[in-house]
Amino acid sequence: MTREDLFEEIKKKRSFLCVGLDTDLDKIPAHLLKEEDPVFEFNKQIIDATKDLCIAYKPNLAFYECRGAAGWESLRKTLEYIPGNLFTIADAKRGDIGNTSLMYAQTFFNPEKSGLDFDSVTVAPYMGVDSVTPFLGFEGKWAILLALTSNEGNKDFQYLETEDDFLYEKVITISQEWAGPDRLMYVVGATQADAFADVRKLAPDHFLLVPGIGAQGGNLKEIAKCGLNKQCGLIVNSSRGIIYASSGEDFAEKARLEAEKLQKEMQHLLEKM
Amino acid sequence: MTREDLFEEIKKKRSFLCVGLDTDLDKIPAHLLKEEDPVFEFNKQIIDATKDLCIAYKPNLAFYECRGAAGWESLRKTLEYIPGNLFTIADAKRGDIGNTSLMYAQTFFNPEKSGLDFDSVTVAPYMGVDSVTPFLGFEGKWAILLALTSNEGNKDFQYLETEDDFLYEKVITISQEWAGPDRLMYVVGATQADAFADVRKLAPDHFLLVPGIGAQGGNLKEIAKCGLNKQCGLIVNSSRGIIYASSGEDFAEKARLEAEKLQKEMQHLLEKM
Questions:
Q1: Tell me, what's the ipTM?
Q2: Among A34, A81, A78, A28, which residue's Cα sits nearest to residue A249?
Q3: Which of A41, A226, B107, B167 has an alpha carbon within 20 to 30 A of B24's alpha carbon?
Q4: Are A174 and B156 within 8 A, CB to CB?
């Protein structure tokens, strides 16, 4: 999917919402457990209930691979079920030496090998250039590089001071030598609202994938203030706040209501642009 | 597996060799392709041919997951086939926010959930404390944290200067607040031989997982000089140099010869300790 396609979808839906599919067998409603593939059935109903309100889905790989081969099969079916106009993110935080990163890229971008055809994958920067560039060689596909994450542990390394800036700023600066805003996005956590102005100075045109609203405490309005750019430039994710809004048979309806609240708020923020 | 168990195995085998199972359908001998699961069949023969010469096996996750559910099934069967006295490493470079890292830990350490029961998993440090600690809570299991990797891209961030040391040194220092040398190891690339003295100052007792000899150019003797400690403290990996020593029907024999060369060299280095 191109940047223009993504922006068109945002304008059409008046939304920059991503629904995170952190689907956990221990948390989905009990009545689904009798299904042949409860995780897929849950995702299917969540997708049906939210696909007109969001522009992206983000399956969190850990929640699938913890069930081994069966989990990968649920993931494949889920991805196949997501309509083609929605942007898909493999939240996998991969990254290894060049030949191995290329294998990971094949995993997420080459359906003939793996059965999966994601639009993008999240990538960890620690191993540097040759760990990231293999993800950048696929037409219409994206690497979303971790810059400043939403969790407590971001203080340990991402805020370390190097010569004249923080490590996460170095990640943003150096990675721009590898690809432009048509292939690369950054993860910037919603809990780090104060950092968005600095991020936008370094990466004015890039899309930012923003996790951490809802359960983790980030605030949408705060992020939008400095984060929005002329092509929106934000994909804001909510996982638990939407998909686990109810643990009963009405889980999909309740998920829709939560997604709708965020979509309305986003519509309002986009109109003010 | 405990540190003592691992050291016993090293003394018994006179070896600190790890065989990397980067098993690629496009590279294994053609005659295996008629098997039901060629990747497992290849691994099985490699394991049979090398298990008395090495102390660990390290499947590289990318090479399995790029084949989707089928690849995970090959991985599960491979792991099950490895004898219990050998240390197993899921080379997965995982790491995410706390609840997600816990799912990854379950993937590799909880056979009831995933079918996999590895002794250890490689973990990326970028997301800090809560991304690593979930891997440290399993009795007899290990996190192997990326410190200084073997690839070209290590220059981008790992050698960035922070206050008074390099980022990779900060990773080693800070992570020691999370666990001791009974739960935590570090990845230090064989291509970085000059750094081993500095690493040993910071982490005298830890086991180091050392990739990058052979195809990547690292030298065993150079690493051993500063890397060996009183419990050996090194697990040196070779992947391509062993498993792809021949592309013919004699691949397992030739793999054994390459493993034997390294084992002999290691025996010699251990005797000089």
A1: 0.96
A2: A28
A3: B107
A4: yes
Choose, out of B97, B130, B155, B162, the residue to mutate when testing the contact with A (most A CBs < 10 Å).
B97
B131·A153 Cβ contact <8 A? yes
Q: Are B102 and B73 in contact (CB under 8 A)?
A: no
Q: Residue A55 has which token pair?
A: 């522009």
Facing B62 at nearest CB: one of A104, A126, A163: A104
Task: With CB atoms and an 8 Å threshold, state whether B131 touches A146.
Answer: no
H or E, element range at B188: strand B184-188
User: 3-state class of B209 per DSSP?
Assistant: strand
Encoded amino acid at A181, one letter: P
Q: Do B94 and A62 touch (CB under 8 A)?
A: yes
Contact residues, chain B, for A103 at CB < 8 Å: 24, 60, 62-63, 66
Task: Spell out where chain A has E strands.
Answer: 17-21, 56-59, 87-94, 120-123, 142-148, 161-162, 165-166, 184-188, 208-210, 234-238
Considering CB atoms only, which of B66, B95, B132 is closest to A114?
Answer: B66
Facing residue for B126 by CB, picked from A70, A158, A161: A158
First-to-final CA distance of chain B: 24
Give the integer Cα–Cα distance in Å for A117 and B48.
36
pTM: 0.97
Asked if the Cβ–Cβ distance from B154 to A128 is below 8 Å, we say yes
Evaluate whether B83 touches A130 at the Cβ level (below 8 Å).
no
Tens digit of pLDDT at every position of chain B (273 positions): 999 999 999 999 999 999 999 999 999 999 999 999 999 999 999 999 999 999 999 999 999 999 999 999 999 999 999 999 999 999 999 999 999 999 999 999 999 999 999 999 999 999 999 999 999 999 999 999 999 999 989 989 999 998 889 999 999 999 999 999 999 999 999 999 999 999 999 999 999 999 989 777 889 999 999 999 999 999 999 999 999 999 999 999 999 999 999 999 999 999 987
Q: Which residue among B93, B113, B170, B225 is the active-site one?
A: B93
What does the domain layout of chain A look like in residue ranges? 3-271
